[in-house]
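Write out the 3D structure for:
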Amino acid sequence: MWTHKYKLQMNEFNLATEVRGLVREAQNILSTTQDVTLAINTLDRISCLLPEIQCRQTTDFPETVVTPVKEEFAKHHYTRFCDFLLQNLTCDWFKKLAKVQKYSFDVFFINGVHHEAFLLLCKYVQQSSSNFQLAKYTSLLEEFIDGHKMAKLILSQCHIDKTIDTLSKTSRNLVWDHLITVIATFPDRMANKLQRETKKLFYPENYFKILAKDTLQVLYVLYGEMKESRDCVISFISQLLGKICIQGYTDTYMGILLPRFIQLTQDDFIWQRLCCNIITRVPEIYLDCLMEYLLQNLPWYGTVSKLIGDSVLTNQKLTYIMTQKCLLLRHYQKELILHNIIGYLAHSTSRHGLFIETLKMLFDVWSDSSALKHTSYEQHLYITKAILIALGHVNEGKMKTYKEVFMTKMMNGMQCHLDSPLMKIRRLGMIVAESLTQIIDSNSSPLKFEYQSDDESDHLISLLKPPEDPGIEDVTNNFSHCNLEEEDSACKAGVEQPTISDKMINMDDELDSDDDIEPYDMSADTKDSNTKQPMYIRDCMQGLVTQDDPERVQACLTVAEKLVRANPDNLSEICVEFVKLLLHTQDSYGMNNFTHLRHSAMVAITVHCPIQVAVYLTEEFFSRNYNIRQRMDILEVLASASQELSQPDKVLQSEAKTSIESWTSQYKDAPTNLVKNWREIVQERIESKTRRFSQKSHKQKATPVPNRFAPVAGYFFFPLLKKYDMSMSTLNLLNQDYLLLGRLIYTLGVIMHAAINTTCCHQMASSLLEFLWVVRYHSEAFVRQAILFSLSMVVLTIPSYSLVTTLQSDVIEFKQWLQDIIEKDPDTECKKLAIQT
């Protein structure tokens, strides 16, 4: 019934009509017949129309029209016929097909039009409610992926048709969007549907590894076509790559592709062109994620140049990512990204102009005082590293052309950095200034600053040396055997212990040495001095005034604290004069521990005469004729003295204990009725008759002593709040003297905590909160950190019931401010302190 109709000449019927009739008749047979043999034969006849199937029997069409018939079926009938098969797939119907004839059904999805089959199977997996159907769809998808049919799917989308019109391109783009979304989200879709029954092949780490290998297989085919000058489309691969990256599976997918890219592009220009087109044609919304991964994982900037070429000059999105976003708007822990970006821009004559413009942009941000205040230290350190790495890639000859430009930017930045209250910020400015001046003019005497070196500063200076090419073997090994090599190197890096014979040889060498006499340890020896130390406070004061005898000044300053603490009786008469003398004493002779000795002496005087000295120091803090160092010394003395006064005095404790013991020993031999009353006698008799099954605690009770800071706390605290808003030529706390403002707020917090459990702490807390509220939005991070510290001291000092009653409104307002700090403050330390508070 089939042959008489289709063995006609092609000029007697229309090809599209006959194919449509054949498909409809097959659908009618499959939906009504109960004959298994007829159903299998019908499926086999239709399967002969699949593009990849070679007919196992004589076809119903002449050999001359087989190719157009297959194209007609694949273009207009394949999707509907497969949809018909999946809709009618039931357990009873499928049982009609023998197991040996399973191929007759599966072939339509495994060897058909791959992208249509994949989309249909994914669609029916999501819609299926029958366990049998779901299991069948899942097994087909598993066979599809495990059989590497995804490679043919991707390859089919890379073949171009030059006759395609604009409308067809639009529809193709719509199909691509849907297909790419399904491919990139396939593991998530299957996990949502199958839950705990998800196949291991559908796990992201397994699925994307197979997909990456299939993609690499397609790239080999495209490489061959490009080598033979045949056109192909790689936009589908680029879009798929970008979609996978934005889904969060970049490491798994690119972990397979990137090592091969590095190896293949080493010496092959065609591979370089192919990889460059794939990477740079990724859609802009995905390009950021991909470039971030590449820049963090490519081991050398030369490899970056081979993978993307000069695309940074033509692709605006790529230019923005590499010159602004990854340098100015973000910061990374890995410095490799900076080495890759800057090395890529610097080592090419065509990109050298962009490199200079990028370096100027980095210097503009680095030298901007507003940017320095409103960015975190980590971000500013990141920009500083970028500048130092860039300076390592330029030579003296090229920099002379831009000498005036960069020197002007450097001088502006130096002023901002040296004005910072943080030493680490000032040190960044010094290191950059030293490096820039050394590169611009290496012949002249280099600029040199004095700063304390540590691991961070040494590392920053080491960035001036560009990294070397690690070599292709090391690169591929680092990608494929990273963990194993690290473990092996860690094992091999162990230092061999010397044997017994080695130790004996070393010991013999030591015994044979000419230095038989061991030298004395003279590290703790002190220099003999003919100057006698003063025995009285007034002699000490007189010695400090001496200008032409540094040894006497040293001796007087050394014993000043001891004299004050040993003879505090007559100190009240001269305490203010003594503190004034110490405050104005300068280290004119470079003495050892000068700052510590002077500070300790002033604290000792303040502790023994708190009212007189506190009144004097708080008044002098706002006086005109003092520099910043002296004002900071005043704040440090007040803070240290308040802390010492708030602690129990050991002398008072020992005196109280001694008085009790002396009274007891005085009446030890007296009659019992003189020492003990009748209650004590009864209690002793009860204790002697009582049996206890646990040992009595032998912990000695603390001896109560009076709080020395309670009556004087107000003299330390309130005068410091009296004139904070005053403005004069030598002091302006609310403007340029923010360093002093921060130290003042820190000091107020320390005094606040020292006044815990005192009668005036509530009033102090209210006044401090009012002051903090005025300066809470200060532009300097150092001041904001001080505010957070003082606020936490208020919370720790004031009882909780007072915080929710008398200070409730202030607490609610500051709570909202803390929330703003956590969400919006650019400084990382401020965020940490706000969370803690």
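Residues 204-227 form the longest helix (24 residues).
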